[in-house]
Amino acid sequence: MSVLLALDIGLALLVFAVAARTVFARGAFEAVVDYVAYGLLLSIVWVRLFAVDVALTEAAIGGGVTGVLLVGAAARLRGAETVAAEESPSASLRVVAACLCLLVTAVLAGVVLLLPYPGPTLAPESARHLAETGLGNPVTAVLIAYRGIDTMLEKVVLVLAVVGVWSLAPDRFWGGAPGEARAAQPEPTLAFLAQVLPPIGILVGVHVFWAGADEPGGAFQGGAILAAMWMILMMARLTEAPPISALWLRLLLVAGPVVFLAAGVAGAVIAGGFFAYPPGLAKPLILFIETFMTLTIAVTLPILVAGPPRREPVE
Amino acid sequence: MSIGLDLFCIVAVGAGVFFFLAGTVGLLRFPDALTRLHALTKADNLGLGLVVLGLLPRAGSLLGALRLIAIWALVQLAGATAAQLIGRAVRRKGPAL
Description:
The complex is a heterodimer.
Chain A: H1 2-24, H2 28-48, H3 52-86, H4 91-114, H5 123-128, H6 130-133, H7 138-146, H8 148-166, H9 188-211, H10 219-235, H11 247-270, H12 282-306
Chain B: H1 2-29, H2 33-55, H3 62-93
Helix pairs in contact in B: 1-2, 2-3
């Protein structure tokens, strides 16, 4: 027991150290590398808190996809970085910002430490009704059944993020494809990985989605793994990002929220409540919704990484 | 039998930890990017390989053991690819420091 406690304390200190490194890093790229390490350490923290679902999401999104997005952003900002450094705010402004940050941290820490123990919880209530959803994983039940509308709106946020990225495109590129054209000669090392890994990755992604009904996993984690496979293929230049005017792409981007919303409206008519599922049909309906959510996530994340269109549309 | 297995676990995982330690020392002490990569790949390959080997008898089932081996194989693939990519970038642009 004491060995585990020592490891936990060591892990917490390591998280603090890497967080400090991220904040005080000299350049954007160094900060991103530290931030990815920070995300992976956090996912170990979630495992130690027995929240494996959160750990999977943190590793896939916090460490993986966000890392790719930020590395891309850092590479694009490289030219502007020296200009930004010259315009750095005055010492007094930085002191004020630091004080405000400390204040927010102190208030957050105070709120967390002053919470009653044991805190107010709906966990027993949620566990009692788990059988009615037909699911074995309470996290999936909360995400898709109890708090379905929150999860649906989360996916709408992802679509809005894509709209935001696309709207950065100049008018003449609207409807075109992001990124450079497919190279005649792909990067050989990355191409090898991009040919070997996707069959395994797609299997693992579908498994994580499927297992999410009863074990840690689910649409978000499985979708993120599928998304990673497409990203590797695009990075190795074995395939290129589709033009943003492609109908199939737009359909897939909205499929998850649309199917979810339709099921919610159908619930209002059939099951007597917005986002209510008819008894007995909950499990198949949840899997149906999750399938489309997985597809939407698997498409949204690579499209976010690909960025705004940078080529004129081909007629 | 059980004591023998425990001993095997301890020796294999201990040896794995030694390679991770050696790899980390190499990463911190070696003079340039290519030699540091060399040290890192040893930690990935032999260190994780020996840890997985030591954990195999404790996997509980054949499926669990296969999963452990799959994890090792995937880390090999990712590690070897990343090392190749970094090595290529170093050769193309010259060492960063």
